[in-house]
Amino acid sequence: MSTQERQGTGESQALQAPQEQGVPTTVEAIRATVQARYGAAAKRVAEGEAGAAAAACCDSSGCCGSTTERWDPITSDLYDAGQTAGLPAEALLASLGCGNPTALAELHEGETVLDLGSGGGIDVLLSARRVGPTGKAYGLDMTDEMLALALENKAKAGATNVEFLKGHIEAIPLPSNTVDVIISNCVINLSGDKRQVLEEAFRVLKPGGRFAVSDVIVREGLPAAVQESMALWTGCVAGALEEREFVALLTEVGFENPSIEPTRVYTRDDAAALLEGTGLDLSLADRVEGRIMSGFVRATKPSARVPTAPAGTVAKRELALAGAPKAKRSCGCDDDCCT
Q: Structure pTM?
């Protein structure tokens, strides 16, 4: 069964789950739930608590990664020390993603980058380094606590080409055709209206702009019990699109050459870690193995096409000019007679 069939309207599985599980039933309720959990994560990071982000987000109905405070197979080991050297520790602590889009995206000097759901700002700060002082890196987030933390991290990093915006990824507060690259790190799966997110991404990208995000992707064949309990398992999987569905949505909103590159396919041990604390039978891990992955999703907005003259137009024009009377100069000579 596809995610589309499970979701009915194409919205998050969380919208379809039973009420008794405390699952949000509207897009607004999903946002409120995500804001509350990510806000708690930001507060704990700001207060300097060890393991703050994981503890705040990954509770018994966590919105990212494992549902316990132990090792998390989704959010662990995403950045190497060399890449994050010089960045505030709080930016790394508040990273609740499932990949490292800045390591895989092709960013160039002078480009404008937008990070959807920028959290504590780590991917924005890394992007700002790549695009240099002539470029610009935007971060968009809806959570006040995360935005406050991101602004602190920006100041600590001394980044002058960074700007954080408050808003929803379904309604990006930027003009059309203004961004070269859109990145995101395990955030699109949390939206209750993914088509709108992709339509907005397409709108703000310049012609030829690139979509380059990391996200959790679901493969077909997940057990029904897991599908029905995803909101208790992890929010990052609850709304995850299947591979073919993600590619189809990108194509439908206008993107070209969509593709998904697996970056981490979760093993049985990973699945068992994620299932722990959900109340589900851990033996389900055998059937979950290999069916959930982190992936790098790429697509391109078509380049602006220069209008071309219909076939035969140029030849007809040349023929017309050949038969036209030649202009005369004031001296009486034709224009092409002499100099």
A: 0.73
